[in-house]
Write a structure and sequence with these properties.
Distance between the termini: 43 Å
Oligomer: single chain
Strand order of the largest sheet: 2-3-1-4
CATH class: Alpha Beta
Order of helices and strands: HEHEEHE
CATH topology: Alpha-Beta Plaits
């Protein structure tokens, strides 16, 4: 394992996990819209649940960027 691989493994292991509530998701397609919007802005391992309204992701997103991504997907932070 090279230095680059070690750095990548360390970054993944120390990635911060976040959880937000998103209003308006009603189906798996809504989950996909939200997940894609966050992934496009750098979030990793996004898991959206329309039944609970909870979205979990790893990485750092500024609050404004997070809100913008959710709004562009057609939803809002709850």
């Amino acid at each position: 394992m090279g230095l680059k691989d070690l750095f990548a493994a360390h970054s993944e292991a120390t990635a911060q996990k976040h959880c937000v509530n998103v209003a308006g998701m009603h189906c798996p397609a809504c989950e996909k819209l939200v997940s894609t919007a966050l992934e496009d802005r750098g979030a990793k391992n996004v898991r959206a649940n329309h039944e609970t309204g909870v979205v979990e992701y790893e990485g750092e997103l500024e609050q404004a960027l997070l809100s913008e991504a959710i709004a562009e997907a057609g939803f809002e932070l709850a």
